[in-house]
Amino acid sequence: MKASSQSKGSSISGKATNFDYLVTSNSEVVISHHGKKATVLRGKRAQDFLDDIERGDPQELMARLTGNYKRGNERLARQHPRNR
User: Fold this and answer.
1) Dihedral of the alpha carbons of 4, 25, 28, 34, in degrees to the nearest 10
2) What is the pLDDT of residue 9?
3) Backbone dihedral angles phi then psi of residue 2, each to the nearest 5 degrees
4) Which residues face 21 on adjacent strands?
């Protein structure tokens, strides 16, 4: 069962997008970001995830679970003198 939870037409900077999840036949949840596997949830963690996406923003939840927080300043920070 494939479940997509992408936001369409959102141009808000810093908002988590482009995450998808897939529930496998053995009840694992595979979370991908831009089509690449980011993490796999199993057991209680997978069930908690499925319960939580019904109540909140699925994109934000998947970003938190994968540790993929993009703030938009990574490129600028790389060019800062202290990071050279």
Assistant:
1) -30
2) 38
3) -95, 135
4) 3, 31
pLDDT in tens, 22-35: 999 999 999 998 89
Listing from the earlier edge strand, what are the strands of the sheet with 36-41? 2-4, 19-23, 29-33, 36-41
What is the distance between the terminal CA atoms of the chain, rounded to a whole angstrom?
46
Find out whether 15 and 8 touch, Cβ atoms under 8 Å: no
Whether 70 has a pLDDT exceeding 90, the answer reads no
What are the C-alpha distances in Å from 74 to residues 71, 77, 79?
Answer: 7, 5, 9
pLDDT in tens, 35-65: 999 999 999 999 999 999 999 889 889 988 8
In this structure, are residues 40 and 28 in contact, taking their beta carbons and an 8 Å threshold?
Answer: yes
**Which tokens hold the place of 30?**
């595979």
